[in-house]
Design goal:
The chain is mainly α and 378 residues long. It is built from 13 helices and no strands. The protein starts with a helix and ends with a helix.
Length: 378
């Protein structure tokens, strides 16, 4: 029988090649090629053209016609890819697969269509496996609940021998499904899919109504132990990573604070040298926000405090001097400078209050004189 089939295949191939050869030598070869192109059979059309002899009356047109077919094949290839993607996106995978197969018969050397076809075949297989697993899980859940109810019924009201046979059959079926789930759980465990493995193995453990013995029990127990170990290892890695990340973040914060402290110290010294005491106070306050001052910073802060005390006293004395000369505005400005450095300075506050009262009296006197002059002029 095998020899007969082999002979048939050889005869068919010989017949096909003969037809191609005869078509190539026919006077109507161009019309036949056009018909093949209309049917999108580009590879077949090129084969026919390749067998056209130089003595053919239309041989001069063959090269141009072949190039045109190649261009049409490229356009067809793009159309196939777009239509195939559209079918895949709409969920019509079977139609897309048939569409790609037809296209590959027309242009078998298309690498893009071959890639799309293989990708669809892989995706189709993965999805089928996923759906079959979902069906198995549904069946397992149903059997688990059914067997539990049957066991309770058997304790309450023993059934007939027919019911008992049915119950035993369900138990045997649940055991086989438990074996399948345990095997799939082991595979998921090996692939690192811990969540899936846990679901499958736990369901396998619960599915068998009788205490499991032998290889099945041992396989599931070992798989669950391995699963627990891997989950614990992952948890430990996560904790270690979290601790390392916290240490790294803390180190970054410390380094950032040290860089900021260095900048503030340099700015503080520069402000003190330039007698920009208000700016210097701001730098000291910002240093304190970064933490306790070190010995060097405490010494600089004490130096600043001494300069501030001296500057405040000088400003207060300048104000008193201006006040004695009747320069009340200048006196108030000097005392305000003292308050800018020492807001709680009682001397400056008292002097400013006294000067403000005198300025108010002087203003009232000026207003009174203006009013008297206005009345006299009337």
């Amino acid at each position: 029988m095998k020899r007969i089939n082999l002979v048939c295949i050889i005869l068919w191939m010989t017949f096909a090649q003969g037809c191609t050869y005869m078509n190539a030598r026919s006077s109507h070869v161009l019309e036949k090629v056009d018909l093949l192109v209309e049917e999108d059979r580009y590879a077949r059309a090129q084969v026919v053209l390749s067998h056209v002899p130089e003595s053919h009356t239309d041989y001069s047109k063959i090269a141009a016609l072949s190039a045109g077919i190649d261009k049409q094949a490229i356009v067809y290839e793009q159309q196939v890819l777009e239509e195939g993607r559209a079918l895949e996106e709409s969920g019509e995978w079977y139609r897309a697969k048939q569409y790609y197969q037809t296209a590959l018969n027309n242009i078998p050397d298309s690498e893009k269509i071959n890639v799309a076809f293989e990708a669809l075949h892989f995706k189709q297989g993965a999805r089928v496996a996923e759906l079959e697993l979902d069906l198995l899980l549904l069946q397992a859940e149903w059997l688990k609940n059914r067997v539990e109810i049957q066991d309770e019924l058997a304790l309450i009201t023993p059934g007939s021998w027919l019911k008992e046979i049915s119950w035993e059959r369900d138990k045997e079926k649940s055991k086989k499904i438990a074996e399948s789930l345990a095997e799939l759980g082991g595979i998921a465990l090996e692939q690192g899919d811990l969540a899936h493995a846990e679901k499958l193995l736990n369901l396998a453990w619960l599915l068998n109504p009788a205490p499991m013995v032998g290889d099945l029990k041992q396989a599931i127990e070992e798989s669950l132990q391995l699963l627990a170990q891997q989950k614990q290892a992952i948890a430990n890695e996560q904790l270690q990573f979290q601790a390392e990340n916290e240490r790294r973040q803390q180190h970054i914060v410390i380094e950032s604070r040290e860089r900021m402290r260095t900048i503030l110290n340099a700015s503080l010294l520069k402000a003190i040298d330039n007698l920009e005491l208000i700016n210097a106070l701001d730098y000291v306050a910002r240093l304190k926000l970064l933490g306790d001052l070190n010995e060097r910073e405490i010494a600089i802060a004490q130096r600043l405090a001494s300069l501030l005390d001296r500057q405040v006293k000088e400003s207060v004395a300048q104000g008193v001097e201006h006040y004695g000369l009747g320069q009340y505005i200048e006196a108030m400005n000097a005392w305000k400078n003292a308050l800018a450095l020492d807001p709680d300075n009682e001397q400056a506050l008292e002097h400013i209050g006294r000067a403000e009262r005198i300025l108010e009296k002087l203003q009232r006197l000026r207003d009174s004189k203006k009013e008297s002059s206005r009345l006299e002029s009337q």
